[in-house]
Amino acid sequence: MRKTLPNLFLFLLLISCTNKQEPLFENISAKTGIDFTNELTFSKELNPYTYRNFYNGGGVGLGDINNDGYLDVFFAGNIVDNKLYLNNGDLTFTDITETAQIASENVWSTGVSMADVNGDGWLDIYVSKSGTPGGENRHNELFINNGDLTFTEMAEEYGIDDTGLSNHSVFFDFDKDNDLDLYLLNNSFSPIGKFDMIPDLRQIPDPDGGNKLYRNDGGHFTDVTAEAGIYSSKVGFGLGVSIGDLNRDSWPDIYVSNDFFERDYFYLNNQDGTFTEVLDGKIASTSMNAMGADIGDLNHDGYPEIYVTDMLPEPEERYKTKTQFESWDRYIEKVRNGYHFQFTRNALQLNIGNGEFIEIGRMAGVEATDWSWAALMADLDQNGNTDLFIANGIYQDLTDMDYINYYSNPELFQTVLRDDKPVDILFESIPSVPVANYAYSNEGELRFENRAQEWGLGEPGFSNGSAYGDLDNDGDLDLVINNVNMPAFVYRNRANEQGRGGWLQVRLEGPEGNTQGIGAQLSVWTADTLHWREQMLQRGFQSSVDPRLHVGLGGASMVDSLAIVWPDGKVERRYEIAPNQALTLHWQQAGEGQAPTPGREPARALLGKAQAPDWSHTENPFVDFDRDRLAFHMRSTEGPAVCAGQAGADGRQIVYLGGARDQAGGIWQQDGQGEWSRLATFPGQAVSEDVACVFLDADGDGDEEVYVASGGNEFGIGASALHDRLYVNQGGEWELSSGLPAMAMPTGAVAAGDWDGDGDIDLFVGERLRPFAYGRAVDAHLLVNDGTGVFEDKTASFAPELTASGLYTGGQWADVDGDGDLDLITAGEWSPIRVYANQQAQTGRAQLEEVTAEAGLEPYSGWWNQVLVADLDGDGDEDIVGLNHGLNSRFRASFERPASLWVSDFDGNGSTEQVLSTWNGEDAYPMVLRHDLVNQLPGLKKKYLKYEAYKGQTVHDIFTPEQLERAEHLEARSLESAVFWNDGSGRFSRQVLPQPVQYAPMYAAALMQADRQGARELFVGGNLWEVKPEAGRYDASKGVVLQLEESTHSWRALDHRQSGLEEQGQIRGMVVLQTPNGPQLLIGINNDQPKLYKID
Prior knowledge:
Layout: H1 4-19, E1 25-27, H2 29-32, E2 60-63, E3 72-75, E4 83-87, E5 93-95, E6 108-115, E7 124-130, E8 141-145, E9 151-153, H3 155-158, E10 165-172, E11 181-187, E12 212-216, E13 221-223, H4 225-228, E14 238-244, E15 253-258, E16 265-269, E17 275-277, H5 279-282, E18 286-287, E19 293-296, E20 305-308, H6 316-322, H7 328-336, E21 342-343, E22 347-351, E23 357-359, H8 361-364, E24 372-378, E25 387-392, H9 401-406, H10 410-418, E26 435-436, E27 438-444, E28 447-450, E29 460-461, E30 463-469, E31 478-483, E32 489-493, E33 502-509, E34 521-526, E35 529-534, E36 538-539, E37 543-544, E38 549-554, E39 559-565, E40 571-577, E41 581-586, E42 607-610, E43 642-646, E44 653-657, E45 666-670, E46 676-681, E47 690-696, E48 705-710, E49 725-730, E50 733-736, E51 747-753, E52 762-767, E53 780-785, E54 791-793, H11 795-798, E55 807-814, E56 823-831, E57 834-838, H12 840-843, E58 848-850, E59 862-863, E60 866-870, E61 879-883, E62 899-904, E63 913-920, E64 923-926, H13 930-936, H14 947-950, H15 955-958, H16 961-966, ...
């Protein structure tokens, strides 16, 4: 038996190894005959100090130059010459650079654009040039294909021999006249330090450079930059230009990704030869160091997304040693001067179908891929979803923080030049660490998983330009990548031989002048899935891809139909197409027809805009980060308070709209014609920040008073501005009550209810935070009404567990256990939603006892911002809506890997610090960077003299056991907004709300009970903008309308065209009003006017 077991083990091991699937890609570079290396060596005249784009690398072009059906390969070289390789048809290639007469020696080449520029059926090559100005052949070159494997350089004859710092160019037909026009992306000659955030610099054309738009006028290109509305200034530091029909009006639009401080450009085609730049109104936030980009449909809705790369590292060791962010003051200065909201991270702009985009890169998990150049969208594994490939690496880490702090010295540079020292001195201390490229598998539902290692694409390197294409005509997409100082990568895709999924390849034969059908749109349907592609050859970074459109089909056994829409509107449809074949579609065979549309417009939206009160919440300019230096989120912008009540017996509703600090709140009422009037205002208490409110009949006289909670983060403990207020309704006159106990802490939550069943209304009041010491637990209060509107704090007697119990953001009274008395449900940060059960029905004495664990809510500790308790499904019990931080964030938490907050006066100087840790890889690390930590805790500077010493340090490495023992330790394990369904006994089960609710932190919710059609609508809103650049603001929600699907007992999010709700701001309150004009939704927005919608 002892011999049998080892033999069995060896047999099983052999079987396991035999069955193991090979990686999706195979690196065949050494077998191909491609021996290109973009070798860079610096000199005193040309190096990273004298030329800032020294390590930006070169592009790749894939195209069939001899019309033999196989893709040939062009590499752009910087110091080395460009190379053109002819495909031999067997995945080997022959260097024909010299015989093709396409060499460009001693000129810095960058982008390569392959297109049939003159419309003769043969592929031409346009090479962008950069580097030091002047010299022979310094201009961009257009190599016209002679049809015999030779080319003639004719850029001057065509009028596009530009001499700027060109990065790339795109050929496309912007005016739909069936010839190819040209957008030329030029980087600025000016040094970065020359500019100081001066407004409107992009409006001033640069006579020596700048981006260019050339119109093709019968074989000669005319510069129409100015008349077309294209920016061409010295602040255009463009690294990427992408073309696509972004608003689906069938006309090509332009997206330019700019490096450094200048914002990106988003040009909508006006269909008359001009463009309108619309970024500010269409995209809320972008990448700051924007590089390569691509455009394509990632979620099968027929609307293209935009993905832009940046340089945020993902691994802990590189994040802590290579990264720095703008200060809050610098960031705000840029915004005020018109440079938009920019953050150091990749940006995935989700097209929401109304011409606008929301940034969801953090939720999708694709925001951090290191120093990234190329971004490509393609279905690499052919599972039917479009994946993302990102080429990474910088040969020398110019952002290494230790190098910047200790070695980067302008005086050293001048000394080297003056004393004729070797230039190597300047660069030998800069780390050079190869990094792996990223290959994100699209898992569906806009979630991505990096599978570079698993797919065989994880070889570390210094990659720049990259292109996809079917090199061996087997139907799947191979990859070619241009590297700095190492051989180019050629990866063969093995998706077909591994049986990973079906495919369809479509070759387009367009009209004379646009023979490749650039701008055509292909729609392919398999069952209920739409695959949408747009013919655009220049993609990613400095590169050109396979001109044949590729569609991965997954397991589909048949293509139900396809439609090709040519740029001039001609349409061809085909039906019942077998997968795994290459098709050729001809413009000449297309005819008149209806182009497919990406989605149907609803007959009528649920919500329609109405007239709101003529008033605006005006936030005061307090900056939390000036005091709370380790905080990432401001907590002084959580207003305005919004609530509704009744003024008297006539049943007409009134609303309270709360002011910010130094702004009075007021009471408003709407008349039968929809006009609003202000009934009262309270200037005497304007100093307070109104963050929550509730109407209640405090004195039992039949009309309602309003309780207003004073919050914010500006005031110290005991400040009079922190006293909550009760305004008593005296027959339409409002007076400040003296019937409240003295409480001078920031309030975050208030709820009214007769919890003790004595016939009057009592109050729950939850404190938000401890000023100057966020994270330390604060109190909640049970205020018992004596029946006349005088309240006494009875917490110690009836609810002692509320003392020092959390950081409160919401609360509500409801009978969740069905025993006939009111229980308390609360929300707070670093806490689960808590339930305090009223024991009156069981013991005869009103008493609150926490039953959070028994209710099944204990595991879901989160950053809860609000709760709404109601019978959501009409089954007779009370369910809970919990509004949380959401998933579109750099802060992540799970049951296995919680987020942690350590709160203490770590250095004993009297101030409290908060150190927030999240998981990265196999451990949890502080999010704070070294320089911010040692600025707050100078005693750590000796321990962490260098950034290298700080990487990989956990809180247990940074602080002593004694320090951590004294600290408060808080955890969050769930950041998803969710519904908790009541089983009827007060025990709850969680259901995560639909994805749009997770796009941002949610702060407000309102329920529209069953309408005349029997539907229930849940309105949800949020966003938080006052966030440090490290985390980036949360701005991806425009409000969400959810409808309950009775059959599945789940919520469905309406898109914005169906709902009619499109509010970009920071929503803080929602109230459904029952008015003579029908039901209406009132929305309170921070630092903005309230909005009112009529509910249809």
